[in-house]
Amino acid sequence: MPLMSDEQQQMDSDGSTSGTTIGPEEQAREVVEALANNNHEQILSQFSDNLITGFTEDIPPTFEVYLKPEPEPVLNEHWLALTALYGEFKGILAIESQQDDEATSLTVILEFQEQTHPLQLTITPEEQLSDLTFATGYEPPAYVDTSQFEERDVTIATDDVELGGTLTVPANSTNVPGVVLVHGSGGSDRDFTTGANKFLKDLAWGLADHGIASIRYDKRNFVTDVPPDEFDIQSVVIDDAVTAVDRLGAVEEVDTERRFVVGHSLGGTSATYIADQHTEVAGIVNLDGPAFGSAADLFLPAVQERWEQQDDISEYGNEQVRQMEKLAERIEAGEIEPDETTVLGQSGAWIQSYNNYAKGWLDTTASLTIPRFILVTGRDRPNQAAQWEETLRTELDDSNTDVAFYEDVNHYFQQGDIPSSPLEPLKFRKPPTETVVSDIAEWISDTPKKS
What we know:
Layout lengths: L5 H4 L14 H13 L3 H5 L4 H6 L6 H4 L6 H16 L2 E11 L4 E9 L3 E8 L5 E5 L15 E9 L4 E9 L5 E7 L10 E2 L2 E2 H11 L3 E5 L2 H4 L9 H17 L4 E11 L1 H12 L5 E5 L7 H14 L6 H18 L15 H20 L4 E6 L4 H14 L5 E6 L17 H4 L6 H13 L5
Parallel strand pairs: 7-10, 7-11, 11-12, 12-13, 13-14
Antiparallel strand pairs: 1-2, 2-3, 3-4, 5-6, 6-10, 8-9
């Protein structure tokens, strides 16, 4: 039912008014104003006990590192992510509410420079916030025309497990290029679902719009348990992707001499080794897949830059950096046991495996006789990204390598302002920027057949 006015809610049964209680709608407006003005204590003072503990439950390990996430920096991070992705906050566009005896549920439509975003609030009769949620649902990219392609279920049949997958093919197509899409770290479904985002699905649909077929599949550690001490890149990433390249070759619409590997993050790093082990790959696309130094060189600078980009780094952030430095020292000293799971969610076996592949990545990439397209992003870690770009252009300075630097996108190719936030792909819907999808499609289309 609609909210009553503040005056009506303060009216006693005899018709007189008393007290200072404000209505839920006005309280919601004050919460938004406090968010916009970084007045987090005002908001946190209204949290119920359950919300205090529940608000930080799904924060990614790259945010918390060793420390238990605290509500105040997490709340601040949400607003940083919103304004970084969607631009300047303009105000409240509308408020919708439902009220019952237990609480009032409100949807506050926040208007930003680029788009709107819903904020869900639940306010108890005692004026406590029992829910505060920023997340929204998945919507297809605006630049995709779903009538231009079709999808079919496929299976990537390995020696020990069957991985479900999706084949996306342009409508009425013959002899088109095809790509195998390879995930980054962690267990993930075929779409690489992260909160409201589906990075690989968006990419598959965007490429199909440009006449390119693709296969994406559920990652091995998404469908089956992989013991931490057996979690190496070869068995969890590379072997399955090689099988997927074979499966792509059986698709009648795909030109078998124009099969590509497009990998994101760890999948981008692994694309080099997938092509090295499958001689019929025509080219590789590395989407922000770092491969220099060791796992310590990968993790530590990212955490340092993530916190130090803030104008006024908090003690919480300083402690995160200090703890990450200790982990980096242990990695460099070889003190991580294979079956140990670090605070970043990676096992010691994974770290050792990454170190081995990173050590030989430049030489192996340079030895490939096929074209490669390497995309580097700059929003998450500008300094580190600039160094990677320079190294790539120096060490892979040949006609077979194209390097592109995208200063205004994060690791998931979401366009926005600097600094970025690790909460962006988890909490806020924004597809990979159309420019990146078009650049990948153009590069694949211009790449000749495998000779």
